[in-house]
Amino acid sequence: MPLNRHLSKGREIARTAGDHASDMFAPLSVIGRGLRHHAGWTKDRWQTTPKERRGPTLFLVAAMAVGVYLLPHGLLFALIALMASAAWAGRAPKAAPAPAAPDVADVKLGALYAALTPYLCGPEDANPLYHFEGSYKDAFGSWEFDAEGRLSRLELGYPAYFTDTEPTARARIEQVVQGKAGRAREYRFDWDEESNRLRIAALTPLPTDIVAQRFVAAPGEIVLGFTDEDGTARTIPVSRGGAIAQQPPVVWRTGPRSAEPHLLALGVTGYGTSSLIRSVALQALPYADLVVVDGAGTGEHACLVNRPGVHTVETSLHGALAALEWAAQETDRRLAALNASRHAGTAPPEDVTRPLWLLLDHPTELSELAHAEGRPDPQDLLELPLRHGRAARVTVVIADDLEARDRITPTVRATTRARVVLGPAGPEQGHAALGAPLDIVPAAHAPIGRGYARIGNGAPVRLQVPTTVDPLDDEAPAPLRDAVIALLPHRDTRTEAAADLPPRPEHPPTALRADGSPLTLPITLGKDEPMIRSRPIS
Question: Is the Cβ–Cβ distance between 202 and 221 less than 8 Å?
Answer without folding.
Answer: no
